[in-house]
Each structure stands twice: as structure tokens, then as C-alpha cells.
Amino acid sequence: MPKVLIADKLSPAAAEIFKNRGLEVDVKPGLTKEELIDIIGDYDGLAVRSACKPDADVIAAATNLKVIGRAGIGVDNIDVKAATAKGIVVMNTPFGNAITTAEHAIAMLFAAARQIPAADRGTQAGEWPKKAFMGTELTAKTLGVIGCGNIGSIVAERALGLKMKVVAYDPFLTEERATDLGVQKVELEQLLARADAITLHTPLTAATKNILSADAIQKTKKGVMIINCARGGLVDEAAVRAGLDSGHISAAAFDVFVEEPAKDNILFGAPNFIATPHLGAATTEAQENVALQIAEQIADYLLTGAISNALNTPSITAEEAPRLKPYADLAEKLGLFAGQIADGGFSDIEIGFEGEPAHLNTKPLTAAAVAGALRPLFTEVNMVSAPEMLKARGVTLTEATRSDSPVYDNLIRIRVKVDGSWRDVAGSIVAGVPKIVEVKGMALDAKFRPVILYVNNVDKPGFIGSLGVMLGDAGINIATFNLGRQSQGEEAVALVGIDAEIPEDVVKKIEALPQVRYVKVLTF
Ligand SMILES: NC(=O)c1ccc[n+]([C@@H]2O[C@H](COP(=O)([O-])OP(=O)(O)OC[C@H]3O[C@@H](n4cnc5c(N)ncnc54)[C@H](O)[C@@H]3O)[C@@H](O)[C@H]2O)c1
Ligand SMILES: O=C(O)CC[C@@H](O)C(=O)O
User: Fold this and answer.
1) Under CATH, which architecture does the 3-95+285-304 domain have?
2) Atom 1 of ligand 2 has which residue's CA nearest to it?
3) pTM given for the model
């Protein structure tokens, strides 16, 4: 009988579900890393919230583990790459705690506007500090929402109900969705200049890290309030401290910190600073939702092989699995390629299946492709949430099938439209190996590798030599080299599989080569 470990404080509903479905379950919150490593080999399933951190060492010791379930949204406590490499499915519950977290952000906004925690402390200390607190009325003030996804859009709706004006910055928010929500879509600079209060609701990615930097904070209105109930690291904590000390920021309320648990943070003790210990999702209702959902998902997978809300593998039924799996993996990799060369949001995505995959259930294949294409912006996107997220953002999805395939037995093609022009890639499974066989209509034959340097250039003599010398001078080994071109002297592409991450200055030098039009380091 499969055995599950609940390694964080989850609602008791989760253990009940495991037992009712005939699984063995141990509930051991608060284990040290060493204790977890000692026992993890006994378990088929692991259920966590955010305190337990199944990192690469834990995963290496998890000899029987098949699934890690996160009762919540963010999986930054889980080493998803290590889990994927070991064939362990990682799943989350993308919607279960969104309302509760949005309510916490609104509570923090009020607490900041009226300095409720400090007023409470003074009152209960017998000071009756009536003169010390002059608050800010929220009605008619402008709330700037950075990241208008599940939680951000609920916060926006609540703020509109409070008669605030709402401006939102989110590259995936369409004008139509913004209009439906009743918010004004703006660029970040406009949001910074206009907002009386700013609230953050993005995941932590390379693009959002320090999105409220010292420089950005300087561009905000004097007296601005800052609320962060998303992830530590979205805001430069030292810059917020300086802003609170100088009075430029009138109040800040944070639920999340760069280092958690936050025991000694630079913000602690700053004037008008309010902290909660990552309580955004901490309501009975939300915890019951996410515990029930994750227990059902883990039990389904261990007992029937059905996968839902997986972050690292397509959702497919046990019967379909053997035929669909290789195409789903190819579709997701091609999506990731297209999403990375989209360089931000895209307005349309087209997915074409030719030959064998056109005869299969293409739904999970499309979902895999879309999840891949969205992943550069949404780290937590999964096969179930991807189509939903695409729809909510007004991105047009077109799926086409063609029963034969002129050149290959099988082909998957993905096109994304960015600022009115299409970027495309196609791939095929050739002798069991997933390959990139076309980029921008140019034929090539490249295997996927963890790091691929993608160069779009003009086919002129000297380019390949200069590129090779630049990589060699930087000590970067070339593992594979694939070229495609339209015709002699015309547009060309190079896909260079390299053995290491490529430093930014080397990328800049390659970009400066006279034959080069575009360079991107792709990771898979
Ligand atoms: N405090 C808590 O306890 C708690 C609870 C739940 C979720 N969270 C966190 O809240 C965050 C939001 O969760 P969600 O469910 O709303 O996620 P979501 O994926 O639904 O929404 C995130 C939004 O951020 C946008 N975005 C991505 N990159 C951006 C960028 N560079 N600039 C501006 N916008 C960008 C996306 O387009 C998307 O609309 C996540 O980090 C999640 O982990 C925290
Ligand atoms: O489990 C928690 O308390 C935090 C959850 C939250 O950070 C999430 O990403 O879902």
C-alpha cells in the first residue's frame, strides 16, 4: 500500500482523505532536514506547505518517492528540477488560497493606511495615543497592482469596491481583461508615478526580482504605501527601509521576506512598518481547500496514475500515458522555446500537429505546449492552469491538425504572435529523440540541451568563426552546433548547445557581431 508523509502543518482533512482512500499516512511536521533525509526513502508521496523544503539532498534520498504535493501555490521551497530529473511529479493547488491571500493584502492596506498595529500597541499600553495617528482615507486613492493574475485581480475587484481607482501593470493583462475588471492597464513607470499605494502579486522570477528597486521607489509619489503579500525579493528591502526612514514611503506592510523565517530583517523597527509571518494563505477556509485538493490529487496519482495540477509533467490518464507522453514532452519543450523567444507577453499562440500526434488526444499536448510557452513568465503554471490562464488573459489559442506530415512522421509546430509578428518553431520525434527541426521556417536538426544559444543572423562569411572564437575565449565548450538558412546570403539561424551558462558580457559581444540580428540564451 502506498505510503504518504505529511511533513508540514496541513488541515487534518488531508490525513483523513489519505486514510479513507486506503493509503498509509504519517503526519510529521517540523522535521529537520537530516530527519527528513533519514525517513524519506520510506514514502511514495510527500505533502508539504512552505516550511518543509524538499531540496536536491532530500530528493536524492527519496528512493521511492513518486509525487510531491504542495498545499498552496508557490513551489519555491521544492527543488522542481531535481524532482523532475528523478521522475517525481510535483503538483500544487493553484486556486485554493487566492481569495484568502487577496483579503490579507486588503487587510494590510487598511492596516498601513490607519497604522492599526501601532495604534493598538499604544492604546493597550495605556497611552491613548489619539494625536499620534493621522491616517489616509482610501476612497478615491489610486491603487497600483503589480501582477494582475488570480490574486492581483481579486485585490483589484475588492479595491474597486472600496471606491479606489486601480491601475495595473502586468505584461499578460489584455486591454479587454482590464476593461472587464474595471482597472486601467499601465506601464510600470506610469504605475509608479500615479499610485498612492502599490501592492505586489507576481511570482518571483528573474524579471520580477527587485521590481520595486531603489530606483523604482524613487519614482513613486511621496507618501506612497507598499504592500507585499506575494514573495520576498520582489522589493528591495533596504530601499524600503530608507524610504520609511526618510518619510518618502508613508507605510509598508509585508507578509513575505527575502529570508524566511524572517527573524532579523532590516525593515523591523522601521517607522510605519507592519509585518506578518507569511500569513497570506492562513485561514481555515483556504487551508481546508488546499489540504483537501492536494490529498485527493496525491491519492489519485498513487492509486490510479492520473495526474492533475502537475508543474513538471503533463496531465494525462493512465491509459493514454504511453503514447502521449513523448509528444507531450516535445510540445512542452517547443512551447518553452517559443515562450523564451517571445521575450514577454504574446497575443496569439498557434499549435499545429501533423502525422501521428494529430491522431491522438491533442488536448493534453496543447496544454503542455501552452504551459511551456507561459513558463518563462509564470513559474508556477501547470497543465491544468495554463489554458485557463491563457483564456483569462485574452490570448488567442488556435489548434490545427493535419493527418499526414510531408517530411517527418510526426511534427508539432508552435507559433506565437508578438507585437503583430509571428515567431515560430517546430519539432519532431526522430528515432525516439525529440528534436528541433525548424525555426522561423528554416530547416535544421537539433537536439534539446539544457542550455542552447539561439542566434538569428544574416548568412555572411566569417560569422561562425567569430562566434566560435568568442565562445572559446570565454572558456565555453560547444557541445552541438546546428545551422539553418533561407538561402545563401539570406536570413539564417544557429542553435548552439553549450556546456555551461553563458555570461551576459559574452552574449553582448555576440549581439555586437555585424551579421547578428538577435541572440537569446534558451534553457530547457
Ligand atoms: N503570502 C502568501 O501566503 C501567498 C499565498 C498565495 C500566493 N502567494 C504568491 O502570490 C503570487 C501571485 O499568485 P497568483 O496565484 O496570483 O499567481 P498568478 O500566476 O495567477 O498571477 C501572477 C501574475 O503576475 C504577472 N507577471 C508575471 N511576470 C510579471 C512581470 N514581470 N511584471 C508584472 N506582472 C508579471 C503574470 O502575468 C500574472 O498575471 C505568487 O508569487 C504566489 O506564490 C502568496
Ligand atoms: O502555505 C502557506 O502558508 C503559504 C502559501 C503561499 O505562499 C502560496 O504560495 O501558496
Assistant:
1) 3-Layer(aba) Sandwich (3.40)
2) 49
3) 0.75
